[in-house]
Every structure is written in structure tokens, then in C-alpha cells.
Amino acid sequence: MYHINAGLGIPDEVFTFGDSVVLTVLGQIAFMPTLVLAARLCPPGIEGTLFATLMSVFNGAGALGTELGALLTSALGVTERNFENLGLLIIICNLSSLLSLPFLSLLGNEDDKVEVDSGT
Question: What is the DSSP code string of 23-43?
Fold first, then answer.
């Protein structure tokens, strides 16, 4: 937004590509606890179904997020030539990632932990 990368000698193309790669890798790492929790809670025999369902929900949420981001971008009037509300758009998009925090209490506590049979 402030073009600081140019001041550091990093071309826009390299910065954009690097940012996409870093965010993708960090996103996959951040998703790992969800997969571990799902594996621990999954009843034996339906692991594939649960994984497919999780991936469907994850991909659907990603598509919905993209569409909502485009709608919000349009509503704020941010275009390729008008960056007046870009800062507000970035703040709203980043704060929206916190919307799931109130639902953490639905996961239960450590006393409700399910024991996993290791198969040995």
C-alpha cells in the first residue's frame, strides 16, 4: 500500500509473488491444527469422508471469502485507479479473521478430550 518494497529495492512483481507464496505456506501451516483436531475426533472408518467434508467446507469458505472481499471492495469504491478507501478495506479484511474467535468455546475443554486408539 505504501510501496515500501520499492524503497528496499524489491520490484513489485517479486514482492507480489513472494507475498503470495508466503501467505499460502503460512495458511497451510495454520490449517494443520484443524486437521489434527479432526483426526483426533474422527470415529474409525470414516476418516476419508471427514477429510473430504473438511476440505469442502474449507474450499467453500475460501470461495465465499473471495466473493465477499470483492463485494466489499466494490462497496468501498476501491478500483485500479481509486485507492482512497484501501486502508479501510485492509483493516476490515484483517479484522474479519477474528470473527471466529467467539466460537472457540464450542470446541470444549481438555477434560472432554477423546482418546484415540493407536491400532496397536
Answer: HHHHHHHHHHHHHHHHHHHPP
Residue 98's domain comprises 46-105
- Indicate whether 56 and 35 sit together in one domain: no
Per-residue pLDDT of the chain (120 residues; tens, 9 = 90+): 678 888 899 888 888 887 788 888 998 898 888 888 888 888 888 888 988 998 899 899 989 999 999 999 999 999 999 999 999 999 999 999 899 899 888 876 655 555 555 555
How far is residue 56's CA from residue 75's CA, in Å, rounded to a whole number? Answer: 28
Tell whether 97 and 77 lie within a shared domain.
yes
Q: Provide the whole-model pTM.
A: 0.65
